[in-house]
Amino acid sequence: MSQIKIVRIHNELLGTYGDQGNAEVLAFRAKFHGITATIVDVSYNDDLPTNGDIYLLGGAEDAAQLLSLEALQRGDNLNILHLAIERGAVILAVCAGFQIIGNKFVANGQEVEGLGLLDVISVPGDKRLVGDIKTTSSVLGFELTGFENHMGRTILGPTAQAFGKVITGHGNGDSKYDGAVNGNIFGTYMHGPILARNPEFADLLLTRATGRKYAQITDPLALKYATWRRKVI
Amino acid sequence: MRLKIAVLIARFAAYLSKKILRRSGETIAGRVLLALYPKAISELSKGKKVICVSGTNGKTSTTKALVSIISKLGTVATSPSGSNLERGVAAALMQKSEFAVLEVDELHLSRVIEEAKPKAVLLLNLTRDQLHRMHEVKRVADRWAKSASTAPETLFIGDVDDPFVALALNSAAQSKRISFGGRRHQDGAVCPSCGKYLKWVRNNYKCSCGLSNSNPDEIFEAGSAAFRNATMANVVGKYLGAKSIAIDEKSLERSVDQIHKGVKANIRLTKNPASWTEALKSVTGDNAVLIVNAREVDGIDTSWLWDISFSGLSGKRVIVCGERALDIAYRLHVEGIEAEITSSFKEAISKFDSGASVQVLAAYTAFHELVNS
Question: Are B335 and A191 an interchain contact pair (Cβ–Cβ within 8 Å)?
């Protein structure tokens, strides 16, 4: 596959914490691998494209999170996501986006059913968790850094696996694990944006989305940035 | 303890701080005063006509403009250093005066309104900023609205093209709604009043719950952020009976000109996506230096650098420095702009020939270091 479609879902709603950069980093890294990437922005009133290779959701405030959920439950959108997962597409969901793709979450004091793509439920904690976070992921085999800024406490169900083990920070709220993963569906609390801070993770998502193995990229600045953040956190 | 004695002790603390530590002394004076006399803001506001200025961007320069407008009417107390938390407000109010024009931090505005019972509050704008501290834009907006609804004696003046400002003004018993013909807002996708998807037609919004920027009390032509803030300062001045001043956008930009080793540097304060976007429009020369830090007041998370399009810098010579030079360098790299990374502002400037003109966009802490050095 020399072309890839990156779907940035509801950036106007899920773009409060800089996560839109994930799409840009994916497209940028794709170029090194000889892949032509297109970023498709899907807004609240749009239907999801059926042929996306990577679907991205970011962090948001409560009201925006509820609107995004409502839009994703509208029409054929959820079915489109299920079909995408079946054909091996990747989903990366951050913070509020992570909660949306889970089974249940609470926003503006109301408990709502999520999309059920990851077996997790999220509830508000008593204290906002804000600061740098570092995890190590057995799924990836390297350390990840990012920034967390959330009230959510996420509990994993039996079919979800934790995405990262927390070294510094709080992650899902227990300071032990961050996020969840199931196949090509990734959920995390890490902003930064996560793919800017961890470009190897972007490469892994490209590999998963295309089913191809790529040669390692030489981008000294990306490596320098990622390595430095891992050292200082 | 009596207020007068507390003020005397606070003044003495400020004097010592100035003499021994060579600091401005305002923060310490305010701290000491509030520790000795917690109700100082409320007591010292009595007998003064207090005007508060708040918003994400433009507080300091608008406060300055408003002081110069109001000073034609009488003596004005203000805090010139931009110290905008309760301690700065308290220190400013120690001055004997007829008026007080106070810059107030967005999150601390409620308490200051409650205590100072201002005659007028000018709300400039509200956008994402220092989210590690503010958490959510809506959280700040809700505080403003609640505060406005409990201050019936106060006139709230603001730019209703910003939905968050409009929400606060709608909650106030007395308001003056100003519009500059409408303007898109980066955080304006959701109605802050009812939570529905906010309907925008070009630059204007109208929600089914009633929140909109239509039917303003006064409408002005569109202009830069500096123009809008100065215009609103004049509206506040007019309300108090002062004559309008000519609008000098340049002086309201929060920028300074300095010469470093023969290089002409125009240094501008940039601190969040809205202020960067505004500042980038003014980068017209060939050379730019960007300084990014991530201390408490800068915002300790740099994710927001990805909210900004730097494409306007394409083709220019761009040098980055600051504690987070790598964060900005990588963000630019992904946008196709290769910046030179340096370890200090001094090194960045040394890369240019004497006589060159350079536009410097500086993070909050970097700006203050350069201006005060």
Answer: no
Shortest CA gap B133–chain A (Å): 9
User: How far away is chain B from the Cα of A159, in angstroms, using its nearest Cα?
Assistant: 31
Q: Which of B292, B296, B330 to mutate to test binding with chain A, by most A CBs within 10 Å of its CB?
A: B330
Write out the two tokens for A53. 């290779």
pLDDT tens-digit series, residues A85-135: 999 999 999 999 999 999 999 999 999 999 999 999 999 999 999 999 999
Say if the ipTM goes beyond 0.95.
yes
Are the beta carbons of B300 and A131 separated by less than 8 Å?
yes
Query: Catalytic: A33?
Result: no
User: Sign of dihedral through CA atoms A120, A123, A127, A131?
Assistant: positive
Kindly determine whether residue A147 and residue B303, on different chains, have CB atoms separated by under 8 Å: yes
List, for residues B278-317, the tens digit of each pLDDT value.
999 989 999 999 999 999 999 999 999 999 999 999 999 9
* Other Cβ atoms within 10 Å of A128 Cβ, number: 15
Active site residue A191: yes
Catalytic option among A10, A150, A170, A191: A191
Phi-psi region of A95 (alpha: psi -120 to 50; beta: other; left: phi over 0): left
What are B19's two structure tokens?
Answer: 């003499």
Closest CA to B137 of A16, A148, A24: A16
Q: Cα–chain-centroid distance for residue A156?
A: 16
Asked if B292 and B305 count as a contact pair (C-beta separation under 8 A), the reply is: yes
The predicted-structure confidence for B21-43, as pLDDT tens digits, reads as follows: 777 777 889 999 999 999 999 99
**Cα gap B211→B231, rounded to integer Å:** 23
